[in-house]
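Students often ask why we bother encoding 3D structure as a string. The short answer is that it lets us treat folding as translation between two languages. Here is a chain of 323 residues written in the first language.
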Amino acid sequence: MKTLKFLLLALSLALTGCGESPPPAKQAEAPPAQAPVKKQRIALVMKTLTNPFFVEMEKGARKAEAELGIELIVKTAAQETSFEQQVSIVNDLIQNQLVDALVLAPANAYHLIPTVKKAKDAGIPVVNIDARLDRKVLAESGLQGLPFISVDNEQGGYLSAKTLIEGVKKPTQAAILEGIRDAENAEARKRGALRAFAENPAIKVVASVTANWKIDEGYAVTKAMFAKHPNIGLIFAANDMMALGAIKYLEESGKKQVKVVGFDALTEARGAIDKGAMLASIDQQAAEQGYQGVLYALRLLKGEQLPAETLLNVKLVKAVSAP
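And here it is in the second language, the structure alphabet:
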């Protein structure tokens, strides 16, 4: 009997051991890979990088790129007078669908307007910085309200030139080195300078000639002006590059008594101010214009309504010891 019980117990254990083992635990599936977020591509198209002003503008735009998480494309023409090249650059960006938005610092008030119309028709927002595109032609093209970021160039021209007229009591001849004619900022700076000169009856403007924003033309034009008007005592230059060209001529010709002011407050101009070769210049916050231009472009891509005009403050830069 005991033997039978033992056999039954052994058979029961054997049957239990032959049972199916429980299925392995199901492993959790890995979550699907997240597609990389596409960055908005914004192009900054400037006149040139031969002028340090636009180097500073790019620095501001690069700062915006890092902080805002966009992809910045920077394009420039060869020179500040390379109008058609600037048009070609913008057309290429539009036609090849390379960007989501454009920030433009135009070389003059007119040449880019048809291209801006193409951008609008393609659904590409545009921000205008530095030099204003002509408002009348923009309106005629259905581009009213295009966001514009710059400074009050007329006020800057006035403040710069006003430093020249302070303390002048005897009859004195003055000259103006203009920027590119048809560029709105150049004309505004000239108006500001003329307004300042008109406040002092002792001053007579005997020459007003364009040097196209360039240092070499500033030198050549200044030399030509003195050939006709050797008694010029004051020079207002609508940007620092032209002012530095004028200073080079004045130093080479020994005309140390001539006072010069500029516009842009470039590092080189600040150095000339510290040495006493230049009386003053105007800081128009180039880097901030670049930063704000990219920021505005991104806000347009988000569908925000922006002001038609944003003017940054100008700052008069003089020697530390100057009154």
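Translate back mentally: The first strand starts at residue 41 and ends at 46. Keep this in mind for the problem set.
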